Automatic annotation (TrEMBL), chain A:
Keywords: Signal. It comes from Glycomyces artemisiae. The keyword Signal applies. The keyword Signal applies. InterPro entries: Bact_solute-bd_prot1 (IPR050490), SBP (IPR006059). This is ABC-type glycerol-3-phosphate transport system substrate-binding protein.
Automatic annotation (TrEMBL), chain B:
This is Multiple sugar transport system permease protein. CDD domains: TM_PBP2. GO terms for cellular component: plasma membrane. Residues 102-318 form the ABC transmembrane type-1 domain. SUPFAM superfamilies: MetI-like. Residues 1-32 are annotated as: Disordered. Coiled coil: none annotated. It is found in: Cell membrane. It comes from the Bacteria. Residues 18-27 have a biased composition (Low complexity). It comes from Glycomyces artemisiae.
């Protein structure tokens, strides 16, 4: 018979063993391949329902695969932590800028054997496919969306300021004039820009590209340029001369979307496909929304900064899980771009659950494939396409510029500081700021090399 | 050593003495039983210690040891690490942002010391003078500590709204002042963070001081009152000397805490504007999580290790220098 002390000791040991056993992460042994896929964080219930409906369709078509969902939104800080901690879902999305680096360092799974089997493997726009390829041209991550930056504007604030919402600004001078008009008439920020978490550098780079400059030339930082001075001088004038940038001067991507959707911002620059986030996660009133192309300077190298999203697979996924993950990417992200039935099914589910269908994107394949896909879902389009016409009617004619590739996030962080200085220090010396930023950016690029 | 241990030790000693003198046979079985009991006792101790040892080992000591190793590695925690000697330390020292972060952290610590350190002491002394509803005041002082830090920061972001309709700016407006860009003006932002941090943390220190004040002999105050001492003379000549041990501890805790400030600059300003609130821990966070190398954990661990060594050395020096006073 056990003494009470011995019984207590055995219980303690058993509990410890149980606790340790609970740390193991074995999936259920039901003969299926289990994968975890990404669902955007903070979606409205209708969007979650639409996603779950697609999961059921996939599981019906693939009875040997079980799909679990995990909320995920890429941000520079959380992604790196999740990657190191091994807590990413099996399928996750990353921006084009991170693809090459993650592939070179082996931080995502090599799924090229499976992607080579995809029927549309060779149909990708080569420039876009390159973001997910290794040096030998093997596709490790699949491009699922591409965008060009755009100027988002609030039509209601335009009207309140006596501006014509159907004739948005076409030059940066007109942007400044409209911003002042909105600010004077409504008290809201006429123009706002992102500043934090490397997004300040991202948007500043966008404007510099639109003015015909670049921030990198094959591993050499080109920060201290006339275009950069022009972009910063414009910000300085709007902030301190016109007082048209409102009271909040520190924004990241989520924060600026939130304030724009709430009607506190007249104009801001971000990806042309932002409507989905504004509507489903920030409750944007569609009637308020307007989208136009970025004003491009009359300069030979002026272009619109592009970017996009890659679907990648966790390096911890086993081969069977990798294969299942590619099947999911093919089903959820790609079939709707290449197969009429899938495109219609996806649009139908989204339309039925009140989710946006038809928000503008750039083609990941060729223009003809994109146009055909748009024709398949035309009857389900429920976004205010007329209000996006200033963008969709011109963006395909704008020269597309790729994001810088060397130490991208570090250089963006350096430029964050420059933007913040200009917006918060009335006496900011742009020459001195750029001299420092040039040195810091070059140091970051040298370190990355 | 437990009571049981003492008893079995005593029994064992008696057994040895008995053996030398030719003990009766009845005593012999006591030796193996004593050994068995001692062994069982040690086993029981080990079993009961095991969960604590495992938890501390896995979640505290192992990560600390791992961080020390990592500071000499180039690693992204996915692929195999590579030992790089002191390269991470050289990289950190060459980073101009390190000196910015040191200056900012020092500035935060100084402001917190000037304004945040005396506040709980004064509050505790005043509350100890109150005859009625002392519990209510204690609860009110401690309430901010109970508020989750992230919620507190979100709340204070509303207070600090730079517009004229922000809470603090509205109050300033009543006196014809402001508006102030609390979190966006480079000269104001750090004091703003210190103000919130003091509000959030002072309650815990107030409770410590109140508990210490209970231990002060009331007859000292009574004698001082008879001698005509006022509140401030009592504070200077009785309270502070009587609390010096606690004050020394809270001082060093304050220094260690403020040297590791992260939450406020991370959530309020993300280090801005223009790195004016970039602190050492925020720099470590940036090394680890916001760069194109997919996590420069080696540099992050190197700076963490340097900070830990400096704080440990400072603490040892502090206790050595104040040993005489504290005794």
């Amino acid at each position: 018979m056990l003494t009470s002390r011995t019984a207590a000791a055995v219980t303690a040991a058993a509990l410890t063993a149980l606790g340790l056993a609970a740390c193991s992460d074995d999936g259920p042994d039901d003969g299926k391949t289990h994968i975890t896929v990404t669902i955007d964080a903070g979606l409205e219930q209708a969007a979650i329902d639409a996603f779950n409906a697609r999961v059921e369709q996939f599981e019906d078509a693939n009875p040997d695969i079980d799909v679990e969902t995990q909320e995920y939104t890429w941000t520079a800080g959380t992604f790196t932590a999740q990657l190191a901690g091994g807590t990413l879902p099996d399928v996750f999305s990353i921006p084009f800028t991170d693809g090459r680096g993650l592939i070179e360092r082996g931080q995502i799974a090599d799924i090229s054997a499976y992607t080579a089997e995809l029927p549309y493997r060779d149909a990708f726009n080569p420039n876009i496919a390159a973001a997910g390829e290794d040096a030998d041209g093997n596709l490790w991550a699949i491009p699922i969306a591409a965008y060009g930056q755009g100027l988002h504007y609030n039509r209601t604030l335009f009207e309140a300021a006596g501006l014509d919402p159907d004739a948005p600004p076409t030059t940066w001078d007109e942007v400044r004039t409209a911003a002042k008009a909105i600010s004077d008439a409504t008290g809201e920020a006429g123009y706002a820009t992102m500043t934090n978490g490397n997004t300040g550098g991202w948007i500043l780079t966008t404007v510099v590209d639109a003015l015909g400059g670049r921030t990198e030339d094959a591993g050499t930082a080109t920060i201290d340029t006339p275009q950069m001075r022009e972009a910063l001088a414009q910000l300085q004038a709007m902030r301190w001369d016109d007082d048209s940038m409102g009271d909040t001067l520190q924004y990241d991507w989520a924060g600026i979307n939130q304030d724009f959707a709430a009607g506190r911002i007249g104009m801001y620059v971000s990806g042309g496909g932002n409507y989905g986030n504004l509507f489903t996660q920030n409750g944007l009133n569609p009637d308020d929304y307007g989208l136009t192309v970025l004003p491009l300077a009359d300069a030979p190298d002026a272009g619109v900064l592009g970017g996009g999203t890659l679907a990648a697979v966790s390096p911890n996924a086993e081969p069977a899980e990798q294969e299942a993950a590619v099947a999911w990417i093919d089903f959820y992200y790609m079939e709707k771009l290449t197969d009429q039935a899938a495109a219609v099914a996806d649009a139908e589910v989204k339309a039925e659950t009140g989710q946006p269908v038809g928000a503008p994107e750039l083609p990941v394949f060729d223009q003809a494939t994109y146009d055909e896909q748009q024709s398949w879902i035309a009857e389900y389009v429920n976004v205010p396409v007329d209000q996006m016409a200033p963008y969709t009617s011109q963006v395909f004619a704008q020269p597309l510029v790729n994001e810088p590739v060397t130490a991208t996030q570090e250089v963006y962080a350096v430029l964050d500081t420059v933007v913040q200085s200009v917006l918060t220090d009335e006496g900011a010396d742009i020459d001195a700021l750029l001299a420092t930023a040039q040195a810091d950016a070059q140091a970051a690029m040298d370190a990355a090399a | 050593m437990t009571t049981t241990d003492i008893r079995t030790s005593g029994a064992s000693g008696g057994g040895v003495a008995g053996h030398q003198a030719g003990p009766p046979r009845a005593a012999r079985p006591g030796r193996p039983r004593a050994r068995l009991a001692r062994a069982r006792s040690g086993l029981h101790t080990l079993v009961f210690l095991a969960p604590m040892l495992i938890v501390f080992g896995v979640f505290s000591w192992l990560p600390i040891g791992r961080a020390v190793v990592m500071s000499f590695q180039r690693t992204n925690l996915v692929t195999d690490p590579v030992f790089v000697g002191f390269a991470n330390f050289q990289q950190v020292f060459a980073d101009p942002q390190l000196w910015t972060a040191i200056q900012n952290t020092g500035y935060f610590a100084l402001l917190a010391l000037l304004f945040g350190y005396p506040v709980p002491l004064v509050a505790a002394v005043l509350m100890s003078e109150v005859r009625k509803a002392r519990g209510l005041f204690s609860a009110l002082a401690y309430l901010p500590v109970v508020v989750p830090p992230v919620v507190a920061v979100l709340l204070w972001k509303l207070f600090y709204d730079a517009g004229e309709d922000g809470v603090f700016n509205t109050i300033l407006g009543w006196f014809g002042l402001g508006p102030v860009a609390w979190l966006q003006d480079a000269d104001v932002v750090m004091p703003s963070l210190v103000l919130e941090a003091t509000w959030a943390a002072a309650g815990g220190t107030v409770i410590i001081y109140l508990a210490a004040l209970v231990g002060v002999d009331p007859s000292l105050y009574e004698a001082a009152e008879i001698d005509g001492a006022g509140v401030w003379r009592k504070l200077w000549h009785i309270t502070l000397p009587q609390l010096r041990g606690v004050l020394l501890i809270t001082f060093i805790l304050q220094i260690i805490g403020t040297a590791q400030v992260f939450l406020e600059p991370f959530l309020f300003t993300d280090g801005g504007p223009a790195n004016r609130t970039l602190t050492l821990l925020l720099l470590i966070y940036r090394y680890a999580f916001t760069n194109s190398l997919g996590g420069d954990y080696g540099a992050a661990a190197a700076l963490s290790l340097m900070l830990a060594v400096v704080l440990a050395a400072f603490s040892m020096l502090y206790f050595r220098l104040t040993r005489k006073w504290s005794s």
